[in-house]
Amino acid sequence: MDTETGAGRGTGADAGAEHPVGGGAGATAPVRAAAVAAAGGLAAAAALHAVWTRSPWPLSSPAELAEVVVGTGEDGLPSAAATAAVAGLLAAAAGLVLAGARPDSALGRARLVRAGLWTVCAVLAARGLGGLAVSGLDLQQAPARYTAMDLRLYSPLCLGLSFLTGYVAARTRGGGRPLKALRRAATGRAGEERR
Fold it and tell me: What is the pTM of this model?
């Protein structure tokens, strides 16, 4: 009897394929690595937006920041307050990913955290796919530098972060029991009912 799932052990390649690693975190090493990568990317984006509330760094001027990052003229730059709000949302998203990667904790199991993970995943996917469509099909009047950066960096980065966040959300649902363990438990229960 499998003490983790309450079902008989499976046979074949998937039997015991998932092994939670270390400290009772409830997440496998790949899940923790994905969470750290996603949270790191989101935190870096948050820090950059926080810098932009005061400075155009690493670009040379507000006009260049508007052209390369926002895709508008300088008069189209968001206000410092709006940029700070984006920085806050990105930082909160990074925190959600780290919390969600610990489903054995009360915070990691919270419905708000679980819903937040999927929301972050969906928003990043929408930004990434929308950016590829709009910039790839040249659907807006944006500077060439912005379009190039959107296709090479901004949209692919959003899609990558979306994938990592979705991976963390999918692999930690069910209170930290891996998906394969949940499938084995369901299959085992169905077999017992047939008997």
Answer: 0.75
